[in-house]
Amino acid sequence: MSLQNESRPPLRWQGYEISPVSQAFRIEPSPQFGMIWNRPIGVWVQTPQGEQHYLPVFDVTRLVQILIVLGGMVLFLFLKMISRRRSK
User: Fold this and answer.
1) 3-class DSSP state for residue 47?
2) What DSSP character marks residue 88?
3) Longest dimension (CA), the chain
């Protein structure tokens, strides 16, 4: 299991250098089986004057996935409590 940050070579556009940064979560228990989950984490921008800025990427999809899972867990616990009350 590993967590790696990777930066791609910068792209040049009108004097700016733009370099995307991603993060990869790897689970590889054997050479035949594994899972890799990539996600964007930010962008490095260098201005023509030489200033560097880091712009984080807000991943809305991940937030929605977490909310769906938590909502399912809350619904499951709620239905379990209701079924216990009815069986007593």
Assistant:
1) coil
2) -
3) 73
Q: Is the CB of residue 60 less than 8 Å from the CB of residue 39? A: no
Distance CA 76, CA 68 (A): 12
Q: How many Å apart are CA 18 and CA 14, to the nearest integer? A: 11
The pLDDT, as a whole number, for residue 10 is 86
The neighbouring-strand residues paired with 54 are: 44
Whole-prediction pTM = 0.58
Q: How many residues does the chain have?
A: 88
What is the pairing mode between strands 33-46 and 16-30? antiparallel
Contacts of 27-32 with CB under 8 Å at 24 or more apart are 27/1
Amino acid 31 reads P
